[in-house]
Amino acid sequence: MPTCPLCTSVDSRRFHRDARRDYYRCGNCGLAFVPPEQRLSPEQEKAVYDQHENHPDDPGYRRFLARLLEPLRSRLAPGARGLDFGAGPGPTLSLMFEEAGHPMAIYDPFYAPQPAVLERRYDFITATEVVEHLFEPGRELERLVAMLPEGGWLGLMTKRVIDETAFASWHYILDPTHVCFFSEASFEWLAQRLGMRVEFPAADVALLQKLRA
Prior knowledge:
It comes from Billgrantia antri. This protein is α/β, with parallel strands linked by helices.
């Protein structure tokens, strides 16, 4: 069985199979994932991302992002500084936080590859529709949390796995760049592993607060 990319456990089983890919689910942390040999190449990934049409002046897109912005903003101190990780080709959430008085940096491996911003500290970090794309979510999320102080926030937006029946007809798995699928149990495992507490203020939003430096 393939190794879980979140917790590195080998306690996984085949969860689902469709015409294109296999999906396994970890018995330790509850993550569902695509095995490494069935992932896209970086070039193939970027070709898909280049088709995205998300713009800061799109009211619908702003409403979508507000599902993360509003609950996270209510927990931040005035002027708290943030990083939007995986900002994509049309950074918008960072602009919305800046409009609310929060200075922001952005990082994206394809569209804003600025390694220097990953060497700084932030009061909060956001990643909207990002974690489902990560090949090594355990390592990447641990790196992000290391940039936060005690009390800092990690705000994540991704749709969550419910059960095997729902997964089989889930539109979310049709995107070939989606390779990791979190459940509430996955986020709870992650919070315990990284010394955080987790809240679920919306169906596809998870807010994790760092409890210790």
